[in-house]
Amino acid sequence: QDAYRLQLKLFLYEVKQQQLLSGIRSYLKLYSAITITKLAQYMEMDEATLRSILMTYKHKMHAVDSNGKILSSADFDFYINEDVIHVVESKSTKRHGDYFLRQILKFEETIAELDKVQLD
C-alpha cells in the first residue's frame, strides 16, 4: 500500500508539472521575446518560481542518446539574457519539409491514377 501511495504521489506531481509546462509552452510560442516579469504576471507566479519552471521545461525537453549527444524534443528553444526570454523556433524547417514531402507523394499518386485512365 505504501508503494502504491508513493507511486501515486509521484505521478500526480508529474501531472501537475506537465500542466504548468503546458501553460508556459503556450505563452512562449506566442512571443519571440518576453520579459520574465511579464510572463510571471501572465502565469500568476513569482519570478523565482517561473525561472525554476523554465529550467524544468528545458530539462524535460532534452534527452541524451546512446552516443552522449544531447537531443531536443521541443519544437522551439529559448534562452534568457538580462531577464528577457528569447524564443527560437527549432523545428520549423522540418515541418515545411514534411509538408512538401507529403504533397509530392500525394501528387505522384494522383499522376499514377491519371495515367491509368483510358481516353477514347
Automatic annotation (TrEMBL):
Q: Which residues form the PCI domain?
A: 1-94
Q: Which GO terms describe its cellular component?
A: eukaryotic translation initiation factor 3 complex
One Pfam annotation reads Paf67
The protein's matches in PROSITE patterns, at most eight in alphabetical order, are given as: PCI
- Superkingdom, natural source: Eukaryota
Alphabetical list of InterPro entries matching this protein: eIF3l, PCI_dom
From the Swiss-Prot or TrEMBL record, what is one GO molecular function term?
A: translation initiation factor activity
Keyword vocabulary terms for this entry? Cytoplasm, Initiation factor, Protein biosynthesis
Which PANTHER family does the UniProt entry name for this protein? EUKARYOTIC TRANSLATION INITIATION FACTOR 3, EUKARYOTIC TRANSLATION INITIATION FACTOR 3 SUBUNIT L
In Swiss-Prot or TrEMBL terms, this protein is called: PCI domain-containing protein
The species this protein belongs to is Aegilops tauschii subsp. strangulata
The taxonomy runs: Eukaryota, Viridiplantae, Streptophyta, Embryophyta, Tracheophyta
